[in-house]
Every structure is written in C-alpha cells, then in structure tokens.
Amino acid sequence: MAGIKNSESSRGGFSNKFGFIMAAAGSAVGLGNIWKFPFEVSDGGGGAFVVMYLLFCFMLCFPVMMAEIALGRKTNKNAVGAFAANGHKKWAGVGILAVLSGSLILSFYNVVAGWALGFAVEMFSGNFSVGSNFGEFVGNWHINLMVSTVFMFITIYIVAKGVSGGIEKASKILMPTLLFLIFGLMAYSLTQPGAIDGVKFYLIPDFSEITFKTAYGAMGQAFFSLSLGMGALITYGSYVGKKDNIVSATSMILLADVGIAFIAGLMMFAFIFSQGLQGQGGGAGLIFTVLPGAFESIGPVLGRCIGGLFFVLLSFAALTSTVSLLEVPVAYVVDEFEIRRSRAVWIVGAVIFLLGIPSMLGNGTVDFFTNFVHYHGSNITVNFMDFIEDLASDTFLPLGGFLVSVYTAYIWRGDKFKEEIESGNPGFATSFMGKYTIFALKYLAPFILGSITIITILSKFF
Ligand code: PHE
Q1: pLDDT tier at 281, thresholds 50, 70, 90
Q2: 110 in contact with ligand 1, CB cutoff 6 A
Q3: Which long-range contacts (CB under 8 A, 24 or more apart) does 311-314 make?
Q4: What is the C-alpha to C-alpha distance for residues 432 and 172, in angstroms, rounded to an integer?
Q5: Closest to 304 (Cα-Cα) out of 118, 128, 132, 134
Q6: Ligand 1: which residue has its CA nearest to atom 11?
Q7: What is the mean pLDDT of the chain?
Q8: Ligand 1 site, residue 315, Cβ cutoff 6 A
Q9: Is residue 224 lining ligand 1, measured as CB closer than 6 Å?
Q10: Which sequence ranges are marked TM in the entry (predicted)?
Q11: Is 85 in contact with 411 (CB distance < 8 Å)?
C-alpha cells in the first residue's frame, strides 16, 4: 500500500505533510463553511456572531485541534483506540461518543451534500427558479433519495481506496479549485448594487445581539467547521509521520478553514442584500435560495456554467468532509474488530445511509419527521435534521472537545503531550504559543466547553 512509510504500520498513512494538510483541510472545509456558516451568521445576528466564532476558533479550537492530532499520531490508533491506549480502557467511551457523533453528522450531511449535487444539475440545465422553489425540491423524496444515494456511493468508494490513494489524491486537486472559484464569486458579489449593506451586517458587530444562544451556536459552528470533537483529526493524525510538524499543520488547517468560511460569508451577505432577501430568516435553505438568483444575474450562459461549477465544487468540498466523517467509524471497525477495510466501509456506510432517511423525509414529506421535536426552552418545533444537527454538532462536539482537553491535560498528561508536539518542532512547548496551548487545554477549554455543554443541555428542558 502506498504511503506506509509515514505510519510505520500496515494501516496506511499520508505520503507527506502536504498530503495530510490537504486532507485535513479538506475535512474541515465543506458544507460547514459554505452552507452552514452563512445561515448561522444570519440567524445569530450578523457581525457579533462572526466575532464570537473567530474568537472560539483561535482561542479554543486551535489548542483542541493540536491535541486531537497529537493524540492520534502518538497512539497510531482510531478514535476509540486512541483514548483507550496506555491502559485507559475506561476512556474508550469517549471514543465511542466520537464515533456516534460522526455517524450522526454524516447521516444528515450526506442529505445536504445530495442537495448540492442536485443543484449542480439544475444550474447546468439553466433552471434558476429552483432557488425560489427550494421547499418543493427538498420535499421531493424521489430526487433526494437518488442524489443522496449517489453521494454515499462516491464517499464509500473513496474511503474504500484507503488513505493516500483516495482521500489524499482527491483533496489535493479539488481544494485549490474551490478556493479560486469562491474568490472570484466574492469579487463579483461585491460589485452588485446594495452589497455594501450586506458587508456592514456581516462585519460590523452589534454586541446587543449576543445571547447565550448565539454564543453556543458560534461554539458549535466553530467545532463543526473545524471537524473537531468527534475524532476525525485523531484518526487523520494517526496517519501522520513522526517527523512532521503538527503545529504548523494545525495553523494551516485552521487558517484555510476560517479563511474560506469568511470569504464565503462575505460573498453570501453581499448577494443576500443585493437581492433584497435580508431578514427572511436563514435556515438550511439559505444558500440554495439565494445563489441561483445570483447566478442568473451573471447571464444565461455564463451563469449556468458558473452556477453548475460552483455546486459541483461544493459537492467536492462536501465529499472530502464526508470521507473524513466515514473514516472515523470505519477506522474504528477495521482496527478493533479486524474486519477488512473494503467490507467495513460498505457495512458502516449502509447503516449511516439508513440513519439519514428520516432527515430526508423531514422536509415536508412525512409529518412525524417534519415536526419532530418541540423544545420547551425556546418554544420551537424542529424537523428531524435540525434535531440531529443540534444534538450532534452543537452539543456532542463541544462535549467531545471538553473531553479531549481534559484527557490530554490530565490523563495523558502535559509532559507526553509536550513531547508529541515537539516532535517535528523542537522548542515549541516553551514558546508563548506553546505555553498558551497547554494553559488552554488545562483550564480554559475544560471550563468554557464544560459550562457551554451543560447549559446547552439544560436549556432544552427549561
Ligand atoms: N468540517 C466539515 C464541514 O465544515 C464537517 C465535518 C464535521 C467533517 C466533523 C468532519 C467532522 O463541512
């Protein structure tokens, strides 16, 4: 198998640091940046949400990301095995939580990724009105079933090919292309009439908008977007070479992810305001309702091409994320139950696909899944997909992050963590950033993440 040289085992591994960075950035950059971030900002009141999100990313997620990658590389194991390594069997439960979160996230993520694929076809065929008929599109379960089946098949195919052959190769080509297109679209969006009001909404924070709900939304978004708190980066970290510098890798992954979310947000709010669609509520349909109109404004032929290409690349960005989501439970099954990768991928993929069917049917097709839960705290009713998203990304991920930091700082212990991050970057632990990282894992992250998780859970009931 190619790439073995780095992992020193038969599990496979990235062929070099660049391959790892591209794959991990591919995991991080996805629907979270382009689909979820704009509607979270819109629902969370604009600039104030953006500021909180950025603070969480740099102050909290950076140390947690480093801890996850270090943990994976040190143990050379999947999420469950990594926690249980070195005699900490009881901690395997945390890894199981990670596998569960990843599977839940993939179940609905695959459905949204299917929408992106469906929209690529619609744009190429010039059907821009699909944007204003978004409700009809997602309510059509035949189409949904078809596109999400296709998407899951592609994900399974890539994961089955293994670490360097599938995941790494796809990421290296597609990520830069997407970045290029988003840059272009952002520049175009800023030339539209009224765009400046969108930019203001996005960039000028109104701190009176900050509530607990926006804070935990920003926290959940930061974790989701950076693929943290569910073992994806533990698993990817286990395929990284000992000599690679994980500090610089972490910085690059973080900057790539935050940078792309930021540009995508700018583009979206410029388009939203220039089309007069502000204040209509965001939600899961935001990019799907706003962007087709924007592409139409480019012109009938060029708009079709750019729109189609955009959704194709969005699907690819989603693909490098679904691949990492599927890799977590697959690596667990392969390592711990000694099932062949090619078989494990199909079994796990099929189960998760089935788990996603209620999300697919909860957009008007089946009433039970459409009005799935009524939260007492906020007095709203949400559909199955929103329920799973809320549970997995806003609750389980910060909880996972909390457990990762407690584990790294107190169970695995600071010294071993220091040793691991210094491998490939000697002297880091005593630098300012190194000291901050250790402080954050010991005190800041456990405190903030722990309290946010507890209040989030309580807020659902009271
Ligand atoms: N970070 C991915 C995105 O932004 C989603 C994801 C979450 C992937 C958790 C892996 C793990 O789209």
Answers
A1: low
A2: no
A3: 311/116, 311/117, 311/119, 311/120, 311/123, 312/120, 313/174, 313/177, 313/178, 313/181, 314/31, 314/34, 314/35, 314/116, 314/120, 314/178
A4: 32
A5: 128
A6: 227
A7: 90
A8: no
A9: yes
A10: 18-35, 47-71, 91-121, 141-160, 172-191, 222-241, 253-273, 309-332, 344-361, 395-412, 443-462
A11: no
Token couple for 298: 């480019």
Residue 24 CB less than 6 A away from ligand 1: no
Q: 274 CB under 6 A from ligand 1? A: no
Helix 92-124 / helix 300-337 crossing angle, nearest 10 deg? 160
Angle between helix 246-274 and helix 195-203 axes, rounded to 10 deg: 140
CATH of the domain at 301: 1.10.4160.10
**pLDDT (tens digit per residue) in 159-193:** 888 766 666 677 677 778 888 889 999 999 999 99
Among residues 192, 216, 443, which one has the least CA distance to residue 298? 192
Q: At which residue do the structure tokens 């990492």 appear?
A: 324
Only one residue has tokens 């379960």, namely 141
Contacts for 359-362: CB closer than 8 Å, 24+ residues apart = 359/107, 359/108, 359/111, 359/384, 359/385, 359/388, 360/111, 360/141, 360/144, 360/145, 360/148, 361/141
Is the pLDDT at 232 greater than 60, yes or no? yes
Across-strand partners of 374? 381
List the structure tokens of 196. 């400046």
Domain extent, residue 180, equals: 4-459
Q: From the CA of 376, how far away is ligand 1's center (Å)?
A: 29
Number of domains in the chain: 1
Per-residue pLDDT tens digits for 400-410: 999 999 999 99
Backbone angles phi, psi at 111, to 5 degrees: -70, -45
- Give the tokens for residue 411: 């169970």
ipTM greater than 0.90: yes
Q: What is the model's pTM? A: 0.92
Q: What is the length of the chain?
A: 462
Task: Return the structure tokens found at 327.
Answer: 């890799």
* Burial degree of 87 (CB within 10 A; 0-12, 13-18, 19+): exposed
Residue located via tokens 């979310």: 261
Atom of ligand 1 nearest to the CA of 31: 12
Q: Tell me the C-alpha distance between 194 and 200, whole Å.
A: 11
232: Cβ below 6 Å to ligand 1? yes
